[in-house]
């Protein structure tokens, strides 16, 4: 309701201060100080709005998107920063829709992405920027625009891009691939790149079939793929005595990925080290390299 009011408000509303809703306040734990609402202000006439690390949730971003749609805001605003916030795929989609109809020059999801002129570098490094599924939705949209045409290499290392999490809500046990929307969109555009680094992203078994879709496009140019340090891609659980992990109980997605790599002539480098692979997991990889001599 507030978002609708903000979008339709007359020009008299020049400033609004609210508290974010994306991270509930925690009363204990190492992340207690980083939790809870953060106050942010939206003001007409600003050229840059920096909402990084404000604990924004999807509802906050819907509100911000409504603010961007106001003519007196979009006429002036050039830069919007939303990095390091759990905005979710819903929030990312709301921002993409707002950016498309704005005069924004840069959307910052951890690193600035130009949306009115071409990106000048062949590489984009957004590693360890606390990107989540929402920021990945924005990144995926941007990768499909002409502004990213020169890009050849993407590094998203160390970001939980599939919504994996481990906190009090999961009883401090890792749960993987809780929000695949952004990752699914990303996999639709990765094939045009030459090099992609997805290491240490806490990818789980459900993300593997999505990643395999990268290679379905006959024109895929991807030559180097790094998925190292994702030790749950074939499944991972604590054993009964909680002294070691059991792997390879969910091989279907991994097998699908290996099969896709085996039939893709463009791929020449594949790094799956530190992924907890067991003898059963090596079998589909062995079949892939039999078929694809380029790997």
SSE layout:
Elements: H1 2-8, E1 15-19, E2 39-43, E3 48-50, H2 58-68, H3 71-74, E4 79-81, H4 88-100, E5 106-108, E6 112-114, E7 123-125, H5 133-143, E8 153-155, H6 181-187, E9 195-197, H7 207-212, E10 224-226, E11 236-238, E12 245-247, H8 252-262, E13 269-271, H9 279-291
Parallel strand pairs: 3-4, 4-5, 7-8, 8-9, 9-10, 10-13
Antiparallel strand pairs: 1-2, 5-6, 11-12
Helix pairs in contact: 1-2, 2-4, 4-5, 5-6, 8-9
**Helix proportion range:** 25-40%
Rg, rounded, reads 21 Å
Tertiary shape: flat
Low-confidence stretches: none
**Largest sheet properties:** 5 strands, parallel
- In round numbers, the mean pLDDT is 91
Q: Estimate what percentage of residues fall within beta strands.
A: 5-15%
Number of helices: 9
Order of strands in the sheet with most strands: 7-8-9-10-13
Q: Could you give the distance between the termini? A: 54 Å
* Oligomerization state: single chain
Total strand segments: 13
Write the element-wise H/E pattern from the N-terminal end onward.
Answer: HEEEHHEHEEEHEHEHEEEHEH
Q: Based on helices, strands and strand pairing, what is the structural class?
A: alpha/beta
């Amino acid at each position: 309701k507030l978002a609708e009011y903000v979008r339709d408000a007359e020009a008299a509303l020049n400033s609004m201060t609210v508290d974010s809703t994306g991270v509930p306040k925690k009363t204990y734990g190492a992340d207690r100080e980083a939790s809870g609402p953060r106050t942010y202000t939206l003001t007409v006439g600003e050229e840059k709005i920096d909402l990084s690390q404000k604990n924004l949730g999807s509802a906050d971003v819907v509100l911000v998107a409504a603010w961007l749609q106001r003519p007196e805001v979009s006429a002036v605003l050039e830069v919007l920063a939303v990095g390091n916030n759990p905005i979710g795929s819903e929030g990312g989609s709301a921002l993409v829709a707002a950016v498309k109809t704005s005069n924004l020059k840069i959307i910052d999801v951890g690193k600035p992405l130009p949306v009115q002129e071409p990106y000048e570098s062949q590489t984009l490094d957004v590693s360890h920027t606390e990107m989540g599924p929402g920021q990945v939705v924005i990144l995926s949209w941007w990768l499909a625009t002409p502004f990213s045409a020169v890009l050849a290499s993407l590094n998203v290392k160390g970001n939980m891009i599939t919504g994996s999490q481990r906190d009090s809500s999961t009883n401090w046990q890792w749960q993987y691939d809780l929000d695949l929307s952004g990752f699914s969109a990303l996999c639709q555009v990765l094939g045009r790149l030459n090099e992609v680094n997805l290491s240490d992203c806490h990818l789980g078994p459900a993300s593997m079939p999505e990643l395999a879709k990268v290679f379905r496009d006959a024109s895929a140019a991807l030559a180097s793929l790094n998925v190292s340090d994702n030790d749950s891609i074939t499944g991972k659980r604590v054993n009964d005595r909680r002294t070691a992990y059991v792997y390879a109980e969910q091989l279907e997605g991994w097998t699908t990925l290996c099969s896709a790599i085996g039939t893709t002539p463009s791929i020449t480098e594949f790094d799956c080290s530190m992924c907890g692979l067991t003898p059963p997991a090596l079998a589909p990889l062995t079949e892939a390299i039999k078929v694809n001599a380029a790997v």
